[in-house]
Amino acid sequence: MNPYASYQQSQVLEASHEDILLQLVHGALIRTKQARELWAQGDKVKARERRLQVFEIISYLDVTLDRENGGEIVEELEALYAYMTREINKASRYDDMEYLAPVEDVLHTLHQGWKDAVTEYKTSQNQQKTLGGPQYGQAENYGDMLRG
Question: Please, what are the domains in the chain?
Answer without folding.
Answer: 15-126 (1.20.120.340)
